[in-house]
Amino acid sequence: MPRSKLVRVAVVGLGAIGPVHIEGYKQCENAEIIAVCDTRKELVKKWSKELGVDGYTSYIELLKREDLDAVSICTPHYLHAPMTIAAAVYGKHVLVEKPMATSLMEADEMINACREAGVKLGVIFQSRFAEGPRRIKRLLEEGKLGRIVMAEAIVKWFRSDTKYYHADKWAECWRGKWSTEGGGALINQAIHTIDLFQWFLGDIDHLYGLYGTYTHTINVEDTAVAVLKFKNGALGVLEGTVSMPREFQETKITILGSSGYVVLEDREVKVLKIEGEEVKAKEEKEEGVKETLKVRPNLHALQIRDFVDSIIENREPLVNGEEGRKSLEIIQAIYMSSRTGQPVKFPVKPLW
Ligand SMILES: NC(=O)c1ccc[n+]([C@@H]2O[C@H](COP(=O)([O-])OP(=O)(O)OC[C@H]3O[C@@H](n4cnc5c(N)ncnc54)[C@H](O)[C@@H]3O)[C@@H](O)[C@H]2O)c1
């Protein structure tokens, strides 16, 4: 248990998303950043100076610190499992970026390592903390849409071959490869929407998936589709791509029930119809975690606050390892189905 309810954290990986975690911890009065870590010396120098904290280029040296309670892991996908397991061995709580791992076996080892060590494991899915998705979750739990008939998740994004996958030598080290990114459009970009999709609709019975690489020079998929049957009987369709021209990008979930219909675009409820009720897509005053914050929140800050509170209150984070694993299971099932030409039944038996 951390001293005087202050959770002492280190942010590991100071690339694109690491600074967002730093900002989140700065907004959280129960947390204190005591160190940063990256293998790139210039980033360690920059952030340790800016925050006035210790900087590390060796992750294991960082973990040896006895006054450290938790780490935020913001490194490339292939490092999530070994870094989480090492943190658990050293008795540190872990908040790991999505996807939690590149395979289900890794995810299971992470969950087990953290359980055995008695440390918390949180997986970043910040969209679950936004007001629109939380409202849809409530509506579904209350059964307002009736029996769910059909649902659709669409992630049509753009990622540049030259400015993203091959932006520089570092990007080329890990992006666009099965061994390091663990996949492409699904595991890196569409995963947020896939997470919401299963959070809204529940367990899947089976799915059929297909993927391919069409507009990028990468090994992993830039486009994928799946049709699914949920355990509740509803039918689902999923589309994910990073080949959409930038000006036409779209992120959308639609859910059709026997007594209602809802459309979530980006993270906002755009259409909401409930039989026999006058409802507005945009609520005048929406409830949610937002109002409990004193400072203007970003979604990472909300999830970081929940993670810190879960340590102090000794409870599970809202998105724990088991929750973080669910979208990965769907993605792995789509990859398996496409490779074998067969439907995949849930729960998926990890093959790698
Ligand atoms: N939640 C979101 O919306 C969101 C957005 C962007 C990225 N991400 C996720 O964040 C993670 C990182 O992505 P990114 O875009 O910031 O990548 P990035 O490549 O910009 O940054 C990764 C950093 O990790 C460092 N690193 C590599 N090996 C290391 C090691 N052994 N020890 C310490 N540091 C090491 C690199 O030097 C780099 O600075 C990925 O899992 C990605 O999917 C999440």
Task: Spell out the key features of this protein.
6-stranded parallel beta sheet, alpha/beta, binds nicotinamide-adenine-dinucleotide, 2 domains, 352 residues, Dihydrodipicolinate Reductase, domain 2, Rossmann fold, 11 helices
β-strand amount: 15-25%
Overall SS class = alpha/beta
CATH class of the largest domain: Alpha Beta
Bound molecules: nicotinamide-adenine-dinucleotide
- Low-pLDDT regions: 287-296
Bin the helical content.
Answer: 25-40%
What fold name goes in the CATH topology slot of the largest domain? Dihydrodipicolinate Reductase, domain 2
Count the DSSP helices: 11
Shape: globular
CATH homologous superfamily of the largest domain, by name? Dihydrodipicolinate Reductase, domain 2
Cα Rg = 20 Å
Major sheet attributes: 8 strands, mixed
Mind explaining what this structure looks like?
The chain is an alpha/beta fold and 352 residues long. It has two domains: 3-127 and 295-320, Rossmann fold (3-Layer(aba) Sandwich); 131-270 and 327-345, Dihydrodipicolinate Reductase, domain 2. It contains eleven helices and 14 strands. It has an eight-stranded mixed β-sheet with strand order 13-12-11-7-10-9-8-14. A six-stranded parallel β-sheet has the order 3-2-1-4-5-6, with helices on both faces. β9 and β10 (235-241) form a beta hairpin. α4 runs parallel beside α5 (104-117), α6 packs parallel to α9 and α9 (185-201) packs across α11 (321-340). The longest helix is centred in the C-terminal third of the chain and has 20 residues, at 321-340. It starts with 6 loop residues before the first strand and ends in a 7-residue tail after the last strand. The model is unreliable at 287-296 (pLDDT under 50). Bound molecules: nicotinamide-adenine-dinucleotide (NAD). Nicotinamide-adenine-dinucleotide binds at residues 12-18, 37-40, 43, 59, 74-77, 79, 97-98, 124, 126, 188.
